[in-house]
Write a structure and sequence with these properties.
The complex is a heterodimer of chains A (267) and B (541).
Chain A lengths: L1 H24 L10 H33 L17 H29 L22 E2 L5 H6 L1 E8 L2 E6 L4 E3 L2 E4 L4 E7 L4 E5 L4 E5 L5 E5 L5 E6 L12 E7 L1 H11 L7
Parallel strand pairs in A: 1-9, 2-6, 5-11
Antiparallel strand pairs in A: 2-3, 3-4, 6-9, 7-8, 10-11
Chain B lengths: L6 H9 L14 H29 L10 H37 L7 H9 L1 H15 L12 H4 L2 H31 L12 H32 L13 H35 L6 H15 L14 H29 L8 H24 L1 H7 L3 H31 L5 H27 L14 H31 L42 H5 L1
Classes of the chains: A alpha/beta (267), B mainly alpha (541).
Chain lengths: 267, 541
Amino acid sequence: MLNKNIYLILIISLVFAISFWIGFNVNLLPAEASINAPIYDELFKILFIIGLIIFIGMTIAVIYSLFKFRKRNDQIGDGIALEGNLSLEIVWTIIPSIIVLLIGLYSYNIYDRMGGMKELNHNHEMMSSNTEKIWAGISQNSDNEIAINNLSIEVSAMQFAFLFNYPKGNFISGELHVPVDQKVSMKMESKDVIHAFWVPEFRIKQDIIPGQPTILNFTPTKVGKYPIICAELCGPYHGGMRASIVVEEESDYNEWFNKNKKPEVNL
Amino acid sequence: MTISIDPQKTNNESLQPKGWLRYFSFSLDHKVIGIQYLVCGFLFYLIGGTLASAIRIELASPMSDFMPRDVYNQVLTLHGTIMIFLWIVPVVNGAFGNYLIPFYVGARDMAFPRLNAVAFWLIPPSGLMLVASYFVDGAAQAGWTAYPPLSITTPQSGQIIWILSVLLLGGSSIFGGINFIATIIKLRRPGLKLMQLPMYCWAMLGTSLLVVLSTPVLAGTLILLSFDIIANTGFFNPVLGGNVVVYQHLFWFYSHPAVYIMVLPAFGLVSEILPVHARKPLFGYTTMVFSIMGIVVLGLVVWAHHMFTSGTPPWMRLFFTIATAFIAVPTGIKFFNWVATLWGGKISINSAMLFSCGFIINFVFGGITGVALAQVPFDIHVHDTYFVVAHFHYIVYGGTVFIIFSSIYHWFPKVTGKMLNEKLGILHFIITFIGFNLCFAPQHWLGLNGMPRRVAEYDPQFQFVNQISSLGALLMAISTIPFLINVFLSFRNGKDAGDNPWNALTPEWLTSSPPPVENWEGEAPLVEEPYGYGKEISEQK
């Protein structure tokens, strides 16, 4: 009996060790290029490790049962008439409930750190002037003072392109340029069908909906050029609906901005 | 309440064609209807599988070069619609439900045999109509979700035929659901208590409740959508002041429970198969019943987790995260119980057992990614990517389709009186299991790294992994060959099975194979312990 328990403990520790090792050493995610990304990857790592423990554990249990309890040729009759075990049932109801609840609370915390739980209506610079209702999106560090200094961009999506309007510079670009380490605030609206704005390296996505503006705030942290991908089926060229976001040093960004800026037209 | 058999009906039966011809007739025999569902479903599975192969061929290269882009969207729409509404739902509910439920409750037929036949005969015409829409003016191309405004702006005829077809299939599903509820509640043999029913009855009771509660919502939604398309109303058309997100709420109010409509019957079937081949009682019968009902209740209040990026208020996201994650608890209980059923048994390693164990492993994997997807911050990155495609194929293919195959190996001797060939069966399992995992496991990585779903072209850096996936799909296509050979050869000259080759205790095995028209020559047996393996009743056999 003691021997059996030792083997069990040994196997469980081995499953945990393998899961933790894989969880910490195997990277399945693209580069981290926004404030959101490391937060997301932290959640991913935890879920990945818990998932591996359960999956490896269950797989071992199934394969072990198939070998250990397989019917030998000389055997006749049935297995043991075991119909259930109440304490075991309670254990495997309560433990998963606690795990699931903890994961839920933890992901709430992650989501809050990403800015998902913030009220969106009153902090957005472009929103203050009208009473139009905005649905959801991610809104980071949306204190009022910061919000006013934000870089505000209006995104319009159509079959099959994104257009980025810089109201302060009075110009429209097909490529999104943003300075590194500054909060960007986007108001997005679609001209035809539903599209989605997704930057895998930023771990953010928000649908762009006709007749219903959405906002998305993010802070890029790494200089580089990343793809913007439409993630919602929008027609035949959906797969080709892509754009780029260029994250650059502030001086480079300002140079680009001033080059494209159109003079104000005074009426 | 007792219901006597109408003598009129028995006379009608004798007028119906005999032999194989009855499978092409408006038969009222639940066993004939069950086989009609199964064979019809399998033919559509072959069509849906051909479409899946076309998708994987297109995705073997990063350019859109195999078919035109709009045809690609039609193919993916038809693939999803056929696999869900014409293969999985009719087969796990209609086919096995019709064949088994009257046996399990000790009845001679379903409660409403004519409604039952109508429910089946709605399927072939709507399925053919759906496939034929491709040749009219192109099939629907807005995905099986048919989100407006895309579904309003794409060519109309295909979309309208799609709506009509799905409405008919939904009607068929509702008829079936009502019939199962009535049969399980009202047609039980006198003396048979609810808590003595085989687990598949409970699964079908739960599933049918979901069908009856949620399918009418889909029907209503699609009728409103068809008004928007034909009559230029503005329910969902933003140009006319409609709201596109309302459609998504209504659609997923059905289509999330639809996932449970596809997996709960599979949970029931595997609960029948494992005890027989492990020679052990089903572990934790009562908790299994409660967890099925728990899944039914929770399944109705989680739909908005499909819409975390659509524009939903934060509190709603939080509620649906917690509710969704909690479905893992009753589902987890069932999986622990199945492993406990295997534990200490005398397991025959045959095709039915292997497919069931493959199901456990695949579904646990799909369930884990499901709990991850329920978390809003996690979902925001991978929503609408190949990660989601991989996840739901692990649930519906790795889960339900594996159980459909397992069930065919288990009940083929009952239906035909012949055994299937075990060597070909195990070959079928090995190719399917390897092909399936090779096809869908790499897609998780694709989704995490930036490949959205429903695309005909993609970033060339993903080509190698997509080709592995396509190779897996090729193996899956090949795997149907040993299966089909096996079924045809065994049907013609397979080994004689006898009445009860597995020494099973559930009531369908306590009659001849194949069973007579009214299921038993004499009175239906009273089976109080359908899982009494290892007990005296089993040893008497």
